[in-house]
Design brief:
By secondary structure, the chain is of the alpha+beta class. It contains seven helices and 14 strands. The strands form two sheets. Strands 1-2-3-4-5-14-6 form a seven-stranded mixed β-sheet. Strands 8-9-10-11-12-7-13 form a seven-stranded mixed β-sheet, with helices on both faces. The protein is globular, with a radius of gyration of 20 Å. The N and C termini lie far apart (49 Å).
């Protein structure tokens, strides 16, 4: 008698986290189990928009996960209105159950008013992603050498800690974002100009393959033009800490900065109503799970 294989797709819950960590450790052998556990714990306590899953979805067989797709939902201000962005992250299905993988993507991407992003697609998945309706919004990374930029006169660089509250010159939203990312382990900075203007930045150490640079990645700045203005001051600040480069999302060389543009390193995709802005990877897998 043939036994029918029963597979169901359901939302990941708190009770599933240990098993999900085991599954992802098998699927991504270069990552430790602690890496996944730490990220899942961060997801368990971060603010998640109402009605959206906190962790994502799983394929379940015989009460055990055989596939998972992590989702990171964030409410964002896009042009004065609140929208939802979802970072699709860490997709893995056990080989014996790969034919059921479309169940995960169909459920995860069913909201037409949500902007979905994939910021770390493996090269072999590009054609599949594009077939699902995703469009490329970032072609590569620009590795800038900010210490080679002329510093703005009398500009100061300040470090923002996770207990930061009101900061002169910054909106409440920017202060909350900086403090939150400092708690994730990012380097959060303010460049303060002589006229009192304050420019917020979030940086994170990055693992650079094939390129031997002591690099940081730009996680957040309000506008790339702000970084061009502040690059000299930030570069000298980082040079004293042994960092010589800042990599930022780009579609070509960045005017006003000294550096090297590389494709397809850092290619990123989106699907939905709002094209993501370059140099904004805040609240993404890069900070929730780490580089």
């Amino acid at each position: 008698m043939r036994v029918r294989t029963m597979i169901r797709c359901r939302e990941i819950g708190i009770a599933d986290l240990d098993a999900i960590a085991d599954l992802l450790t098998r699927g991504f052998p270069t990552r430790s189990r602690d890496y996944w556990i730490d990220g899942l714990r961060r997801l368990s306590v971060r603010e998640t928009p109402d009605s959206f899953p906190r962790f994502g979805y799983m394929l379940e067989h015989d009460r055990a996960p055989v596939g998972a797709l992590q989702l990171i939902h964030t409410a964002r201000n896009d042009g004065g209105s609140i929208s939802i962005r979802c970072n699709l992250s860490s997709w893995y299905v056990e080989p014996a159950f790969r034919s059921y993988a479309p169940m995960l993507t169909k459920v995860a991407q069913r909201h037409k008013d949500v902007t979905y992003v994939n910021i770390s697609p493996a090269e072999w998945t590009w054609q599949v992603i594009e077939g699902q309706g995703f469009r490329r919004y970032c072609g590569g990374l620009f590795f800038s050498f900010p210490a080679l930029s002329r510093p703005a006169k009398a500009m100061r660089v300040e470090v923002v800690r996770q207990d930061a509250q009101a900061i002169d010159g910054l909106s409440e939203a920017d202060v909350v974002l900086l403090a939150r990312h400092a708690a994730y382990g990012c380097l959060c900075l303010i460049c303060r100009a002589s006229d009192g203007r304050a420019f917020p930045f979030v940086l994170q150490p990055m693992r650079v393959r094939r390129i031997r640079l002591l690099a940081m990645q730009m996680i957040y700045c309000p506008d790339v033009a702000d970084y061009v203005v502040c690059a000299g001051a930030i570069g000298r600040f980082l040079l004293r800490r042994g960092r010589i480069s800042i990599a930022l999302d780009a579609n070509g060389p960045v005017r006003g900065l000294v550096g090297i543009y590389r494709e397809p390193i850092g290619r990123k995709y989106f699907k939905g109503p709002h094209c993501p802005r370059l140099a904004d990877l805040s609240d993404s897998e890069l900070v929730i799970y780490g580089p």
